[in-house]
Amino acid sequence: MRNRFDEQLFELNKEIIEMGAMCEEAIASAARALTAGDTSLAGSVLSESGEIDRKEREIESRCMKLLLHQQPVAKDLRLISAALKMITDMERIGDQAEDIAEIVTFLCGRTIEGMEIIGEMADEAIGMVTSSVDAFVRKDTALAEKVILQDDVVDAYFVRVKSDIIYMITKDHSDGEFALDLLMIAKYLERIADHATNIAEWVIYSVTGTHEEVEK
User: How many domains does the chain have?
Assistant: First the structure.
Protein backbone atom coordinates (compact mmCIF):
# COMPACT_ATOMS: atom_id res chain seq x y z
CA MET A 1 0.00 0.00 0.00
CA ARG A 2 2.77 2.41 0.98
CA ASN A 3 4.77 1.56 -2.13
CA ARG A 4 1.80 2.49 -4.31
CA PHE A 5 1.39 5.75 -2.41
CA ASP A 6 5.10 6.57 -2.84
CA GLU A 7 4.75 5.95 -6.59
CA GLN A 8 1.84 8.38 -6.71
CA LEU A 9 3.83 11.00 -4.79
CA PHE A 10 6.69 10.51 -7.25
CA GLU A 11 4.30 11.13 -10.15
CA LEU A 12 2.98 14.23 -8.36
CA ASN A 13 6.52 15.56 -8.04
CA LYS A 14 7.14 14.92 -11.74
CA GLU A 15 4.00 16.79 -12.76
CA ILE A 16 4.88 19.80 -10.60
CA ILE A 17 8.36 19.88 -12.14
CA GLU A 18 6.79 19.73 -15.62
CA MET A 19 4.41 22.57 -14.76
CA GLY A 20 7.32 24.63 -13.42
CA ALA A 21 9.25 24.08 -16.64
CA MET A 22 6.20 25.18 -18.64
CA CYS A 23 6.02 28.39 -16.60
CA GLU A 24 9.72 29.07 -17.15
CA GLU A 25 9.29 28.62 -20.90
CA ALA A 26 6.23 30.87 -21.04
CA ILE A 27 8.00 33.72 -19.23
CA ALA A 28 11.18 33.28 -21.27
CA SER A 29 9.16 33.34 -24.52
CA ALA A 30 7.29 36.47 -23.42
CA ALA A 31 10.59 38.15 -22.50
CA ARG A 32 12.20 37.23 -25.83
CA ALA A 33 9.14 38.47 -27.69
CA LEU A 34 9.32 41.75 -25.78
CA THR A 35 13.02 42.26 -26.45
CA ALA A 36 12.74 41.41 -30.15
CA GLY A 37 9.30 42.90 -30.80
CA ASP A 38 8.27 39.45 -32.07
CA THR A 39 4.48 39.29 -32.18
CA SER A 40 4.38 35.71 -33.53
CA LEU A 41 6.46 34.50 -30.56
CA ALA A 42 4.16 36.46 -28.27
CA GLY A 43 1.23 34.59 -29.81
CA SER A 44 2.80 31.25 -28.90
CA VAL A 45 2.74 32.25 -25.22
CA LEU A 46 -1.06 32.26 -25.32
CA SER A 47 -1.17 28.54 -26.11
CA GLU A 48 1.54 27.86 -23.51
CA SER A 49 -0.63 29.55 -20.89
CA GLY A 50 -3.52 27.28 -21.84
CA GLU A 51 -1.31 24.22 -21.33
CA ILE A 52 -0.31 25.52 -17.90
CA ASP A 53 -3.99 25.84 -16.97
CA ARG A 54 -4.61 22.26 -18.11
CA LYS A 55 -1.64 20.98 -16.09
CA GLU A 56 -2.90 22.79 -12.98
CA ARG A 57 -6.25 20.97 -13.25
CA GLU A 58 -4.50 17.60 -13.68
CA ILE A 59 -2.30 18.12 -10.62
CA GLU A 60 -5.19 19.39 -8.54
CA SER A 61 -7.16 16.25 -9.42
CA ARG A 62 -4.20 14.02 -8.50
CA CYS A 63 -3.82 15.79 -5.13
CA MET A 64 -7.51 15.38 -4.34
CA LYS A 65 -7.36 11.65 -5.13
CA LEU A 66 -4.33 11.23 -2.88
CA LEU A 67 -6.11 12.98 -0.02
CA LEU A 68 -9.36 11.05 -0.47
CA HIS A 69 -8.09 7.56 -1.27
CA GLN A 70 -4.94 7.38 0.82
CA GLN A 71 -4.06 8.10 4.44
CA PRO A 72 -1.08 10.46 4.19
CA VAL A 73 1.11 10.94 7.26
CA ALA A 74 2.00 14.47 8.39
CA LYS A 75 5.01 14.89 6.05
CA ASP A 76 3.06 13.61 3.04
CA LEU A 77 0.12 15.83 3.91
CA ARG A 78 2.45 18.86 3.97
CA LEU A 79 3.78 17.96 0.54
CA ILE A 80 0.30 17.59 -0.97
CA SER A 81 -0.93 20.80 0.68
CA ALA A 82 2.16 22.69 -0.53
CA ALA A 83 1.67 21.26 -4.04
CA LEU A 84 -1.88 22.64 -4.18
CA LYS A 85 -0.62 26.07 -3.14
CA MET A 86 2.34 26.02 -5.54
CA ILE A 87 0.32 25.13 -8.63
CA THR A 88 -1.97 28.09 -7.94
CA ASP A 89 1.04 30.42 -8.03
CA MET A 90 2.40 28.67 -11.12
CA GLU A 91 -0.92 29.11 -12.91
CA ARG A 92 -0.84 32.82 -12.11
CA ILE A 93 2.71 33.05 -13.41
CA GLY A 94 1.41 31.60 -16.68
CA ASP A 95 -1.39 34.17 -16.71
CA GLN A 96 1.06 37.03 -16.24
CA ALA A 97 3.36 35.74 -18.97
CA GLU A 98 0.27 35.73 -21.18
CA ASP A 99 -0.55 39.31 -20.14
CA ILE A 100 2.95 40.43 -21.10
CA ALA A 101 2.65 38.63 -24.46
CA GLU A 102 -0.66 40.36 -25.17
CA ILE A 103 0.93 43.76 -24.60
CA VAL A 104 3.76 42.79 -26.97
CA THR A 105 1.19 42.07 -29.70
CA PHE A 106 -0.34 45.53 -29.14
CA LEU A 107 3.11 47.11 -29.55
CA CYS A 108 3.13 45.80 -33.16
CA GLY A 109 6.84 45.10 -33.36
CA ARG A 110 8.09 47.96 -31.22
CA THR A 111 10.94 46.88 -28.94
CA ILE A 112 12.14 48.10 -25.54
CA GLU A 113 15.14 49.91 -26.99
CA GLY A 114 16.21 52.49 -24.44
CA MET A 115 14.46 50.58 -21.64
CA GLU A 116 16.73 47.54 -21.47
CA ILE A 117 16.34 47.60 -17.71
CA ILE A 118 13.00 45.82 -18.21
CA GLY A 119 14.88 42.98 -19.91
CA GLU A 120 17.18 42.78 -16.89
CA MET A 121 14.16 42.71 -14.60
CA ALA A 122 12.66 39.89 -16.67
CA ASP A 123 15.90 37.87 -16.40
CA GLU A 124 15.83 38.26 -12.62
CA ALA A 125 12.18 37.18 -12.38
CA ILE A 126 12.78 34.17 -14.65
CA GLY A 127 15.75 33.20 -12.47
CA MET A 128 13.53 33.29 -9.39
CA VAL A 129 10.97 30.98 -10.97
CA THR A 130 13.69 28.56 -12.08
CA SER A 131 15.31 28.54 -8.64
CA SER A 132 12.02 28.09 -6.81
CA VAL A 133 11.24 25.00 -8.90
CA ASP A 134 14.82 23.72 -8.42
CA ALA A 135 14.40 24.21 -4.67
CA PHE A 136 11.29 22.03 -4.80
CA VAL A 137 13.06 19.33 -6.82
CA ARG A 138 16.03 19.22 -4.42
CA LYS A 139 14.02 19.92 -1.25
CA ASP A 140 16.61 22.69 -0.82
CA THR A 141 15.45 25.17 1.82
CA ALA A 142 18.63 27.26 1.48
CA LEU A 143 17.92 27.82 -2.22
CA ALA A 144 14.30 28.64 -1.38
CA GLU A 145 15.50 31.24 1.13
CA LYS A 146 17.72 32.74 -1.56
CA VAL A 147 14.69 33.10 -3.87
CA ILE A 148 12.82 34.93 -1.13
CA LEU A 149 15.70 37.39 -0.76
CA GLN A 150 15.83 37.93 -4.54
CA ASP A 151 12.33 39.42 -4.41
CA ASP A 152 13.87 42.61 -3.02
CA VAL A 153 16.09 42.82 -6.11
CA VAL A 154 13.08 42.66 -8.44
CA ASP A 155 11.24 45.24 -6.33
CA ALA A 156 14.25 47.56 -6.68
CA TYR A 157 14.17 47.06 -10.44
CA PHE A 158 10.50 48.05 -10.46
CA VAL A 159 11.28 51.30 -8.63
CA ARG A 160 14.00 52.09 -11.19
CA VAL A 161 11.67 51.28 -14.10
CA LYS A 162 9.02 53.63 -12.73
CA SER A 163 11.62 56.39 -12.40
CA ASP A 164 12.83 55.84 -15.98
CA ILE A 165 9.27 55.85 -17.30
CA ILE A 166 8.50 59.14 -15.55
CA TYR A 167 11.58 60.62 -17.21
CA MET A 168 10.48 59.20 -20.59
CA ILE A 169 7.07 60.86 -20.31
CA THR A 170 8.46 64.23 -19.22
CA LYS A 171 10.87 64.15 -22.17
CA ASP A 172 8.24 63.18 -24.75
CA HIS A 173 4.54 63.44 -23.85
CA SER A 174 3.54 61.77 -27.12
CA ASP A 175 5.01 58.47 -25.91
CA GLY A 176 2.69 58.22 -22.92
CA GLU A 177 0.80 55.13 -24.12
CA PHE A 178 4.03 53.21 -24.77
CA ALA A 179 5.30 54.25 -21.33
CA LEU A 180 2.14 52.90 -19.68
CA ASP A 181 2.50 49.61 -21.56
CA LEU A 182 6.05 49.28 -20.24
CA LEU A 183 4.88 50.06 -16.72
CA MET A 184 2.25 47.32 -16.94
CA ILE A 185 4.88 44.84 -18.14
CA ALA A 186 7.14 45.76 -15.23
CA LYS A 187 4.22 45.30 -12.83
CA TYR A 188 3.51 41.84 -14.23
CA LEU A 189 7.19 40.93 -13.80
CA GLU A 190 7.04 42.12 -10.20
CA ARG A 191 3.99 39.90 -9.61
CA ILE A 192 5.78 36.92 -11.21
CA ALA A 193 8.59 37.42 -8.71
CA ASP A 194 6.02 37.54 -5.89
CA HIS A 195 4.55 34.22 -7.02
CA ALA A 196 8.04 32.68 -7.22
CA THR A 197 8.54 33.86 -3.64
CA ASN A 198 5.29 32.17 -2.63
CA ILE A 199 6.46 28.92 -4.23
CA ALA A 200 9.73 29.13 -2.32
CA GLU A 201 7.82 29.66 0.94
CA TRP A 202 5.72 26.55 0.28
CA VAL A 203 8.87 24.55 -0.52
CA ILE A 204 10.18 25.46 2.93
CA TYR A 205 6.84 24.48 4.48
CA SER A 206 6.81 21.10 2.71
CA VAL A 207 10.24 20.30 4.16
CA THR A 208 10.08 21.89 7.64
CA GLY A 209 6.39 22.26 8.43
CA THR A 210 6.89 25.99 8.99
CA HIS A 211 5.29 28.62 6.77
CA GLU A 212 6.38 32.21 7.22
CA GLU A 213 4.77 34.50 4.68
CA VAL A 214 6.93 37.40 3.49
CA GLU A 215 5.24 40.78 3.48
CA LYS A 216 4.97 42.17 -0.04
Answer: 1
CA distance 51 to 5: 27
Task: Give me the sign of the Cα torsion angle 77, 81, 83, 84.
Answer: positive
Decide if 128 is inside a domain.
Answer: yes
pTM value surpassing 0.70: yes
**183 near 73, Cβ under 8 Å?**
no
Q: What CATH number is associated with residue 138? A: 1.20.58.220
Structural domain that includes position 158? 2-208
Report d(CA 186, CA 121) in Å as an integer. 8
> Does 216 score more than 70 pLDDT?
no
Residue 182: inside a domain: yes
Q: Which residue has the higher pLDDT, 30 or 108?
A: 30
Q: What is the mean pLDDT of residues 22-47?
A: 92
C-alpha–C-alpha distance, residues 122 and 158, integer Å: 10
Dist CA 69 CA 74 (whole Å): 16
